[in-house]
Specification:
heterodimer; A: 322 residues; alpha+beta; Arc Repressor Mutant, subunit A; GMP Synthetase, Chain A, domain 3; 3 domains; 3-stranded antiparallel β-sheet; 12 helices; B: alpha/beta; Aspartate Aminotransferase, domain 2; Aspartate Aminotransferase, domain 1; globular
């Protein structure tokens, strides 16, 4: 916090003129048809990305030349806020004239850069960087459909932060080389987590494969182990045996959770544990004493227990009352 | 371009009469009311009059207290923190019952107390988007110290059954607080007619200035102050009172009461006209029954039209409205109201709120109707889902 941050709230003032202009008058919105494709001697590609329940969706239309794989025309439809519309419009424009391979290399950072009024000023405020991510994701989706391949083959491996395009390797290296101990430091060094913040911990804009809190905990544990190999190996929760998982859960319950509940004369017992093949674990608990039967405990305390277990062991843990 | 302000649940125009009433206390009578000399003395009758206006406005008895403070956030924090230091910290009372609908100044203050061992129940609205007295009754336990429920919802305008909830609290011996920020000037408020112990309000929501508000406390109820210092407000709230603001709030309250009838008839009529026109658009959903809402508010969900995109277009046309869409925030949690009433997930990012005031004109509403219709056509033509 400092002088410039204290009077917050203005999202729209931070949009570049180009963003505002494209929100008002997008050049490329609309649809392309098979008829258009025939006329242009090309192949029609339609790709969808996003979900309306998550706040934005985009549909991209391409006509790809039959002879040269050059994108001859591009159009889009979008359900989203203005920056999603502006980003998608710019993205569609950038696709035109490129080959499919060239277009696949367009990143959200390229789109955001193209929307800047001046070289040094971002086109959108940090929390809106997310909108440009979908604009570049849909390109890969379209390319995958065009080539009839799985989209995973076109995606960069192990991107932790989509907004700033930071890889897992970059984050791990930053932690090790600079001896980082907090997520804020990771963001300071790598920009990961500086924008939509989804990748910091579960519960943000979207579900992520990696979260900075988990990476930090794992790398710090590895570093501690490398420094002192005599320390007990700190296992990844998902790879533990059931017995070890239960022990680990009991340890956290004892150290972090039961003392808090005891202050109110309450308690909690581990009742059951179910883990599926993908590592997601449901921890069933039973309340004791003052927590028992009090409805307030369901929302508040349950959230507290789950948050603590997620922070200490694994973000894949979900807590339920048995 | 003339601009149109339909975001009166966020803030309001200071009534020109209120502004005139405040002016002398900036330029001539700028004394500190606590001073002994004439500059202080001459101010005090005006403060007494402002107090009379506020007491009359909410039906408070002379023995009750209305603490003048800076805003409803301060009033809400005074109640929540005061409860902690007077009851929750050291007695067997350990819990608070409130709702998911509350303003952040209640929810965040409660979250803070949770870190200090207080148990808080956040009631979720039912399928009508409401909290009922029965729902509150079920959650009150022997350890409950306080129930805090807003009187009218800022997002939808829905009116909560505060009088019934107050009765339940009285029956169970629990303190009752209501955040009445959205109710003043829109509904008749009479604290003498039902058991409420604390009530907060803020002047800028009823055509008074920003930075001034009030906390009503029933006779015999004691809370430690949030701000410690001088003896102002009988020791309940230290700090030199904002004299022009206080005077302005008093007069704004008097005007709010006087205009209640106009609000209930004329403003309601304009709101209904807008709402009827919006309902003619295909695939829209208005939250809450009309008669169960404040007369100035309509919250509408338009399928296929993202909330922020809609208010962007309205703003381009000079119309100010607001959105419950979370697109502008870091979390993409859907509007709790739209989730509660069981609306499709696809609608969670489509809500737009129009809130009128006694300064809204029919011409403004007619223009707004035309602009919204055009905007919906434009955005739906771009939309993937429509």
């Amino acid at each position: 916090m400092a002088k410039s941050d204290l009077i917050g709230g203005s999202l729209w003032e931070q949009y570049s003129k180009k963003v505002a202009d494209r929100m008002n008058n997008p050049r490329h919105f609309g649809e392309l048809t098979e008829e258009d494709a025939r006329r242009m001697n090309g192949k029609l590609v339609i790709a969808n990305e996003g979900a309306e329940s998550c706040g934005d969706t985009v549909r991209l239309y391409w006509i790809v030349g039959n002879d040269d794989e050059v994108i001859k025309a591009a159009a889009f439809k979008s359900f989203g806020c203005g920056t999603a519309i502006a980003s998608t419009d710019m993205m569609a424009e950038m696709c035109i004239g490129k080959t499919v391979d060239e277009a696949t290399k367009i990143t959200n950072l390229d789109v955001e850069h193209a929307l800047r009024d001046t070289e040094d000023t971002a086109a959108v405020p940090p929390q809106k960087m997310h909108c440009s991510v979908m604009a570049s994701e849909v390109i890969k989706r379209a390319a995958a459909i065009y080539r009839n391949v799985d989209i995973a083959t076109l995606e960069e491996k192990d991107i932790v932060c989509e907004c700033a395009r930071v890889t897992l390797q970059t984050v791990e290296d930053a932690i090790r080389v600079n001896d980082l101990t907090t997520v804020e430091q990771i963001t300071g060094y790598t920009k990961a987590g500086a924008f939509c913040k989804s990748c910091i911990r579960p519960g943000g804009h979207e579900k992520r494969k990696y979260y900075l809190v988990d990476i930090l905990a794992r790398v710090r544990a590895e570093m501690a182990h490398e420094k002192n190999p005599n320390l007990a190996q700190i296992d990844d929760f998902s790879t533990m045996s059931v017995v070890k998982k239960i022990r680990a859960l009991e340890q956290v319950l004892d150290a972090q959770i039961r003392p808090v509940l005891a202050r109110d004369g309450g308690g909690v017992e581990l009742e059951d544990l179910h883990c599926d093949d993908e590592g997601a674990c449901i921890v069933a608990v039973r309340y004791k004493g003052a927590c028992k039967g009090c409805a307030g405990s369901v929302a508040g305390t349950l959230g507290f227990i789950q948050q603590t277990l997620q922070d200490k062991l694994s973000t894949s843990i979900e807590v339920k009352v048995a | 371009m003339e601009r149109i302000f339909l975001d009166n649940n966020a803030t309001t125009l200071v009534d020109p009469g209120v502004r005139d009433a405040m002016e002398p206390f900036y330029s001539q009578m700028y004394g500190n009311p606590n001073s002994l000399h004439s500059f202080g003395i001459e101010v005090r009758p005006y403060l007494h009059r402002a107090m009379e206006q506020l007491y009359a406005g909410i039906g408070a008895a002379d023995e009750d207290d209305i603490i003048i403070n800076s805003c409803a956030t301060e009033g809400n924090n005074t109640v929540i923190m005061g409860m902690y230091f007077s009851l929750l910290k050291d007695t067997r009372k350990k819990s608070i019952v409130t709702t998911e609908l509350e303003h952040p100044s209640i929810r965040a203050a409660c979250r803070f107390l949770e870190q200090h061992g207080v148990k808080v129940t956040y009631l979720c609205p039912n399928v009508d988007g409401l909290i009922t007295a029965e729902m509150v009754r079920e959650k009150i336990t022997d350890t409950t110290a306080l129930v805090s429920v807003m009187w009218a919802n800022n997002e939808t305008g829905q009116i909560l059954p505060i009088e019934e909830i107050g009765e339940v609290c009285r029956e169970r011996g629990v303190y009752m607080h209501t955040d009445a920020v959205q109710a003043i000037g829109k509904l008749p408020i009479d604290v003498s007619s039902f058991p409420v112990d604390f009530l907060t309000f803020s002047a800028h929501k009823f055509h008074g200035p920003k930075g001034i508000g009030g906390l009503y406390m029933r006779k015999g109820v004691r809370l430690p102050p949030l701000l410690h210092g001088g003896e102002q407000m009988g020791g309940h709230r230290a700090g030199t009172v904002d004299v022009p603001g206080f005077v302005g709030m008093g007069y704004a309250m008097e005007l709010a009461t006087k205009n209640l009838e106009y609000e209930q008839s004329h403003v309601r009529g304009l709101r209904d006209k807008l709402e009827d026109a919006l309902l003619k658009i295909k695939d829209v959903l208005v939250v809450g029954e009309r008669v169960m809402r404040t007369p100035n508010t309509v919250f509408i969900s338009i399928r296929g039209v993202e909330g922020e995109a809609l208010i962007w277009d309205l703003n381009q046309a000079g119309i100010a409205a607001s959105t419950g869409s979370a697109c502008a925030s870091e979390s993409l949690e859907a509007s709790p109201i739209l989730t509660a009433i069981g609306a499709d997930k696809e609608l969670a990012h489509t809500g737009v709120r129009f809130s009128l005031s006694r300064f809204t004109t029919e011409a403004e509403i007619d223009y707004t109707i035309e602009v919204v219709k055009k905007t919906v056509v434009r955005l739906r033509s771009m939309s993937t889902s429509y």
